[in-house]
Amino acid sequence: MNLEKIYYDNKIVKAFIIATVVFGIVGMTVGLLAAIQLFYPLFNFDLPYTTFGRIRPLHTNAVIFAFVGNAMFAGVYYSMQRLLKTRMYSDRLSWIHFWGWQLIILAAAITLPLGITTSKEYAELEWPIDIAIALVWVVFGWNMIATILIRRERHMYVAIWFYIATFITVAVLHIVNSFEMPVSLFKSYSWYAGVQDALVQWWYGHNAVAFFLTTPYLGMMYYFLPKAANRPVYSYRLSIIHFWSLIFIYIWAGPHHLLYTSLPDWAQSLGVVFSVMLIAPSWGGMLNGLFTLRGAWDRVREDPVLKFMVVAVTAYGMATLEGPLLSLKNVNAIAHFTDWIVAHVHVGGLGWNGFLIFGILYWLVPRMWATKLYSVSLANAHFWLGTLGIVFYAIPMYTAGVVQSLMWQEFNPEGFLTYQNFLETTTKIMPLYILRAIGGGLYLIGVFVMAYNLLKTALAGNFIANEKAEVAPLAPATTGGSWHHVLEGKPVLFSVLSLVAILIGGAIELVPTFLIKSNVPTIASVKPYTPLELHGRDLYIREGCVSCHTQMVRPFRSEVLRYDPQHGEYSKSGEYVYDHPFLWGSKRTGPDLQRVGQKYADSWHFRHMLTPAEVSNGSTMPAYPWLFEQQIDKNSTGPKIAALRKVGVPYPPGYEEQANADLDRQAKKIADGLRTEGYEIMPTAEIVALIAYLQRLGVDIKAEKVAANNGKP
Amino acid sequence: MYKEVLRSIHNIEVWPLISVIIFFIFFLALLWWALTAKQAFIKRMSHLPLEDGTPTITDATNQLEV
Predict the structure, then answer these.
(1) What DSSP line would sit under A517-565, residue for residue?
(2) Are A4 and A420 in contact, with CB atoms under 8 Å apart?
(3) Local structure of A66: helix, strand or coil
(4) Closest chain A residue to B48, measured at CA
(5) CB B37 to CB A244 under 8 A?
(6) Pairwise CB contact (< 8 Å): A508 & B5
(7) Touching check for B14 and chain A: CB below 8 Å?
(8) Which of A79, A227, A278, A463 should be substituted to probe chain B, the one whose Cβ sees the most B Cβ atoms within 10 Å?
(9) B37 and A485: CB-CB below 8 Å?
(10) Which among B38, B47, B62 is the nearest to A303, CB-wise?
């Protein structure tokens, strides 16, 4: 047989590797800063750009899309060429993809600290960047599918299937979740409101974990683990079952992020059932990975690459057992809104993604630079720093989550809450926050050690920009064989079937909620926000208040008693019909705010936003001094009203003309009230709008109760 | 709540039925394929990562011999 000489493109892989290491360091450093801010508020620096609410999305976006994203592309570009025995279809597309992705990261790094955010978790970037993401993603997919079409290997290895599923599903998720109505270049409102927005967001959020952090990495596991162990995967049959059942089931499980919320019960139950079912394919995949090392465990002791990979796959197994358990309603009732969830995602992020990336980098860099790793002992040191880092991170966070949750729910013998003041439950876990930062710090030091080691390795070697290979030309298609045999030879059909598999789950989850009005029972007394409150709500979004404060009182006695003792109302879906976007939140570092309206005087909020620790002794909330100096952007009032009307908020026609007059009236009233208590403030200061919004929260449903009781509260 | 929701969709009772059927067929087909695939094909596929036309040299510490 005539062998063809071809060259694999290593240059693009090198670029993505450098980006991975650089953004890994950046993203984790920002994460460490956020961790320190939680127990040492001084590190918010009293600057808008560095407060926790803006730093936290910067951290999550940097590690997910910049660190894990770039590493994914490095792994995909390296393995795909070799599995398909061809260079990438187009070097130009590869480089457009690379620079496009880095520009998006740059845009995120600028806009998020500026407070330009949609507030939807892991989808915070505003609409122009969303469009850029979609375009760059299409370039990636185009290059990938075209490469598959020019392959010299008739059948697609299982890793390629995972890459195809990643491309298709992330495209669908990103587009559906990013429907938004632009107000200006840097501001938009989610197309969806309240419950529907929450459902779409967590359908997206859950599956972003599935198809950005999991499927591409499973593909990489199926390629790099056999390479590093120098033996084929344990069971190829199992990998087929793993792939199809995983992508089929994953997409249904999103509602488990919304248990006990105002989401309809049937959707919650659907999420629970599918989450439990997910254990099967996830563990099938994990065991397939670990069993690949059968007979090679002696090498795991010697080889840092295999060490990292074994811990990565084990962490994957732990996180995917924990996930379904957290989806059980009784477990979720304890864990939701607490640091338990933070621990869970970091076992996945630091353990599974991080360690698999490190293992792959230690394997790739010596090969691409045709040399030996500079120091195996430094790699081993990194391994132990990283492992200890994960342990020091996760254990305090699990403890903090359980401790705080039990404190929220504890009653004294008289039937009152033992810890009436929410702050007590946060100050109690501060020592654990300090331990967590130490864990994160250890992990970050490990990454620095790796960066040094990889740099020294690269400097000692000679980079092979184009790696020569001798491969056989594409064999003619064989006729007959089983259907999957045929399917693996037809990448386009394969992609369409993957798309169908994920759309079935997505459609059954989303469609009923959207079609049926009765899914969101209306509450007559719930009215759209006034222009001033709307501005306040946008400030709440800009400052990232949703990072620490939920707006979702769950139907538990402990929560109703804590947040609405007077009326006893948990959150109803009808309360959120004008919330574009929803602001339910996913973590309570501070108390829930859904019923905070009229609970405190305006002057309390005024002082609290300026000096939180003086008003609430021991509070770790950042101060927001700039809200007292910056002015409300009244020019945007009209466009905001118009945009919201387009997505269904019933502002009367022409209201944008008089909106600013209403705004001024309400603002003056608040400023006058503050003056009588001795606080001088311009009515146009941003703090006035924020106070108006906070005082509105949960007031509508109380009004209905008052009306039902013939005017008595 | 959920009865009310289900009632208001036309023929909602077929939704769960359809999903069960889709699942069942899907998994049976998958299992059938995985169990009946030819051993030679499975073996060839699982060796793909190890045969990419470039030399594979690995020692105990997974370092290239240079």
Answers:
(1) GGGS---TT--PPPHHHHHHHHHHHHTTGGGT------S-HHHHHHH-T
(2) no
(3) helix
(4) A83
(5) no
(6) no
(7) no
(8) A227
(9) yes
(10) B62
Residue type, A271: G
CA distance A118 to B17: 38
| Mean pLDDT across A357-363 | 97
The answer to whether the peptide bond before residue A581 is cis (omega within 30 degrees of 0) is: yes
Count CA atoms closer than 13 A to A184's CA, side-chain side.
Answer: 12
Binary contact (A158, B45; C-beta < 8 A): yes
- Which of A94-103, A151-160, A444-453, A509-518 has the least mean pLDDT? A509-518
Distance in angstroms (rounded) separating the CA atoms of residues A148 and A159: 12
Mean pLDDT of chain A: 91
- Per the CB < 8 A criterion, the answer to whether A121 and A205 are in contact is yes
Whether chain A has a CB inside 8 Å of the CB on B5: the answer is: yes
**Pairing state between β A4-9 and A466-471:** antiparallel
The mean per-residue pLDDT over the stretch A156-171 comes to 93
The amino acid occupying position A413 is: P
What's the confidence (pLDDT) of residue A194?
A: 87
- For A151, the token pair is 């392959």
Among A15-19, A185-189, A264-268, A341-345, the range scoring the smallest mean pLDDT is: A264-268
Supply the pLDDT for residue B56. Answer: 56
Amino acid at A427: T
Q: Note which residues in 4-63 of chain A have CB less than 8 A from chain B.
A: 6, 8
Distance (Å) from the C-alpha of residue B32 to the closest C-alpha of chain A?
Answer: 10
Report helix, strand or coil for A76: helix
**Mean of per-residue pLDDT scores for chain B:** 69
DSSP conformational letter for A712: -
Tokens of A611: 């000096």
State the alpha helices, DSSP H only, in A409-524. Answer: 422-428, 430-460, 483-487, 491-515
Q: With contacts defined as CB-CB under 8 Å, which chain A residues touch B1?
A: 264-266
Output the pLDDT for position A628.
96
* Closest C-alpha to A47, from A688, A619, A624: A624
- Residues in chain B within 8 Å Cβ distance of A372: 63-64, 66
| Residue of B33, B50, B54 with shortest CB distance to A469 | B54
- List pLDDT tens digits, range A46-102: 999 999 999 999 999 999 999 999 999 999 999 999 999 999 999 999 999 999 999
pLDDT (tens digit, 9 = 90+) per residue, A397-441? 999 999 999 999 999 999 999 999 999 999 999 999 999 999 999
Length of chain B in residues, anyone? 66
Query: pLDDT at residue B14 above 90?
Result: no
In A645-684, the residues whose Cβ lies within 8 Å of chain B are: none
- Whether the CB of B6 is below 8 Å from some CB of chain A: the reply is yes
Q: Which residues of A touch B41 (CB under 8 A)?
A: 481, 485
| Nearest CA among A170, A179, A201, A192 for reference residue A73 | A170
This model of the complex carries an ipTM of 0.72
pTM for the complete prediction?
A: 0.92
Of A101-110, A205-214, A534-543, the poorest mean pLDDT is in A205-214
Return the percentage of chain A with pLDDT > 90, whole number. Answer: 76
Is A515 near chain B, with CB under 8 Å?
yes
What average pLDDT does the segment A585-594 reach?
Answer: 95
Q: Which DSSP string do the residues of B8-33 spell out, in sequence order?
A: HSTTTTHHHHHHHHHHHHHHHHHHHH
Interface test with B, best of A10, A82, A511 (most B CBs within 10 A): A82
Rama region for A230: left / alpha / beta (φ>0; ψ in -120 to 50; rest): left
